[in-house]
Amino acid sequence: MPATQSTDNNFTQFILPSPAKLNLFLHINAQREDGYHELQTLFQFLDYGDEIAIELSNDNQITLLNPVEGVATEDNLIYKAARLLFKLKNNQLGVKIAIKKILPMGGGLGGGSSNAATILLALNKLWSVNLSIQELADIGLSLGADVPIFVEGFAAFADGVGEKLLPANPIEYWYLVSKPNCSIPTAEVFKSKDLPRSTPKISLVNLDVEHSHNDCEVMVIKHYPEVANLLAWLVEYAPSRMTGTGACIFTRFGSEKEARHLQSLLPKEVTSFVAKGLNQSPVHAIVNNL
Fold first, then answer.
1. Domains (ranges, CATH) in the chain?
2. Residues forming the active site
3. What is the pLDDT of residues 121-158, one digit of tens each?
4. Residues 115, 77: contact at Cβ < 8 Å?
């Protein structure tokens, strides 16, 4: 793992990945009385994401070195995750955290959830909190429905509100991930009257990703023409689907070369990257060696 020695104390700075995820499908089954939605999805990671730098300190403080513009520190998922473990540690260690933000906000790639999970996994080890993965996943669920999948670290079929996870092994395709010039708040999608909420439940045994879909596309295509137009263009070339609540669309290929060729044809206003699907998150192997 990349590491550089700090100049102002004896601690080492660690650089950790914070990978993106895809929802290879997303079915909304029902809305519960508490407002949450019952859903089923298939999560897979990407070998692409943010980077988080962590350095311990002796000041018993949590310091974000580059706060997100427009987001109060107390609302930042990185800070909230660190605070949850801060309350459980039994030492005077603090932490300085910096993030190299690559994943777009409002894209459906799980960037904030991934950031929170990386912090939980790393500080659990560095602060010697020593919680189990399941305990960390339970804590992560209080931060967001997608946090547990990043804490668990394996591709999974998810049920419930996304917290009931069964290991899965989808094909690790190459993907072109494209984002039009818009961002979509997750809350807006789940509050919309245009969101389908009655897709029948399926089982992992009977899962056929090819014939599944993303229920959120119905609402997003209706209200975001940028997504609708890009998706219509992409499906002319290869299988394409929106991930999560959008706005990013992933297009599936058998090779990196094919993905990069289509990337070269995208309109200039569309941002994009090419990445490989991963069934194991890269975070755990690194954290285990801290």
1. 3-168+279-288 (3.30.230.10), 174-276 (3.30.70.890)
2. 21, 146
3. 999 999 999 999 999 999 999 999 899 999 999 999 99
4. yes
